[in-house]
Design a protein that fits this description.
With 179 residues, the chain is mostly helical. The chain is built from nine helices and no strands. The longest helix is centred in the N-terminal third of the chain and has 22 residues. The two termini are 31 Å apart. The relative contact order is 0.07.
Length: 179
């Protein structure tokens, strides 16, 4: 049962947070909160996600860890996107992209670019979306990350499918399957 698996995952994450607190391991605590935020937002539990994001924000504000800041910005953007606040989500993804670039993480920078491109496509800025996904693809390839390369290709394929260009859509989607 999916609900049982979700509750077991939430319980396991709660245990990881408690253990991280007991052992004074902030990196483990932040990663557990990050996973918890992802699960909650994907289950439509916006209020619970807000509470987790507030805990993450407190950690970000009391640290100079720029990776945490980038991850928190991304998660906040995901929540805004789920709530239909696309411009706020896009601004957060842009900030996260800048942060990931600052810490030298090309894969996560490409991921943020794909998030931005996805929002651009949803809001009718198709040429911006194509450009952003194309740039994300180039960066993912440069970084040598097959998963983000495949994601970029898939997103380009879906975008072209939505634009009724079946030829380009099938080309990108087939390339995505090869990764």
């Amino acid at each position: 049962n999916d609900q049982e698996h979700a509750e077991a995952a939430l319980s396991g994450i709660d245990q990881a947070i408690a253990q991280a607190d007991a052992l004074k391991l902030p990196d483990l605590r932040f990663e557990a909160l990050l996973r918890l935020s992802t699960i909650l937002v994907n289950r439509g539990r916006s209020k619970d996600t807000e509470a987790v994001l507030a805990k993450m924000q407190a950690m970000v504000e009391s640290s100079d860890n720029q990776r945490w800041r980038a991850q928190w910005l991304h998660e906040r953007g995901v929540l805004e996107r789920k709530l239909g606040r696309f411009e706020q989500a896009r601004a957060l993804f842009v900030q996260a992209r800048t942060q990931f670039r600052g810490v030298g993480d090309q894969v996560m920078e490409a991921r943020e670019m794909n998030s931005i491109g996805n929002l651009d496509g949803r809001t009718g800025r198709f040429s911006d979306a194509v450009a952003m996904h194309g740039d994300a693809l180039a960066l993912a390839r440069k970084a040598g990350d097959k998963a983000e390369t495949a994601r970029s290709l898939r997103m380009l394929g879906v975008l072209y499918l939505n634009l009724d260009d079946e030829e380009l859509a099938s080309r990108y989607l087939l390339q995505a399957l090869e990764h």
